[in-house]
Task: structure prediction
Amino acid sequence: MKTSVERKIASIAESMQGITYLFDNWATANVRLDKLPFPAIINVLPVSGKFSLSRTQLRDCPNCMLAFADITELDFDGVANDEVIERCKGYAVDFIKMLNKSGLFEPVEGDVPYSVFYDKLDANITGITIELQLKEIHGVSLC
Result:
């Protein structure tokens, strides 16, 4: 049985010690994050992707958005919040390193843009989002 891309991402995220993993849309994640420990990785439900077909297999290549978030003060100042942002960048870098070592996806290379967010959800959190197109190494056999 084929393991979904989400389960492959989850296996990488869940191996990161002390970080909560959540797979959801922003609205539902907003509610669930009130009850979960931080820091957290939020794998936002993909809205698009592509199938990559060869003669022997079909590989799923979703466009993924991953958010790396941590608690911040309600009325944060720039210096304190920058520390949270830098910590979240570190989580993203660690995740990408582990993803590349996993052998589950083609290596992530080149530029990986990120966006900073704060005051996006009800919880007092700050973080970054990255967008990647993940390409499975092993897909569904067509033979």
Observations:
- The chain has one domain: 5-141.
- Helices lie at 5-14, 26-32, 78-102.
- The longest strand covers residues 57-71.
